[in-house]
Specification:
single chain; 140 residues; alpha+beta; CBS-domain; three-stranded antiparallel beta sheet; 6 helices; 21% strand; globular; CBS_dom_sf; Diverse_CBS-Domain; CBS_dom; Hypoxic response protein 1; CBS domain
């Protein structure tokens, strides 16, 4: 099975200057936990719901009116390709200890997002439980 068979298609990304209040509303409205950040037609980072809390709300000088995606995002982006084998993508998540990956096509355009939850609906339980263990390990 390929990544494109189970990814969320048509994921939006926002600019690094986007206020985090707007990002939080996007996450709430779409029931998602992360938003990719792009600039000049390239993905440059990711903001997760955890970033909003740990790097935003919990920071000393937090100001919701002034804090932008750039202030809280995790820089550098890891992706998988839409034609990657599912096991390869899951292994990639495991290695990086992440729960979600943006999906790009051959011309390096973002075409979707894949999460462990998506994989869990289609893949064997073994593949997912093995990955969840390693992804969750660093949160204890």
């Amino acid at each position: 099975m390929k990544v494109k068979d189970m990814m969320h298609k048509g994921v939006d990304w926002v600019s690094p200057d986007t206020p985090i209040t707007e990002i939080a509303k996007l996450m709430q409205g779409r029931d998602i936990g992360c938003i990719p950040i792009g600039q000049n037609d390239r993905l440059i980072g990711m903001v997760t719901d955890r970033d909003l809390v740990c790097k935003g709300l919990a920071s000393k000088d937090f100001n919701s009116a002034r804090t932008t995606a750039r202030d809280v995002m995790t820089e550098g982006i890891h992706c998988c390709r839409e034609d990657d084998d599912l096991a390869k993508a899951v292994h990639h998540m495991e290695t990086l200890q992440v729960r979600r990956l943006p999906v790009i096509n051959k011309s390096k355009r973002m075409v979707g997002m894949i999460s462990l939850g998506d994989v869990g609906q289609f893949a064997g339980a073994d593949l997912v439980s093995q990955c969840v263990k390693s992804v969750s390990a660093h949160h204890h």
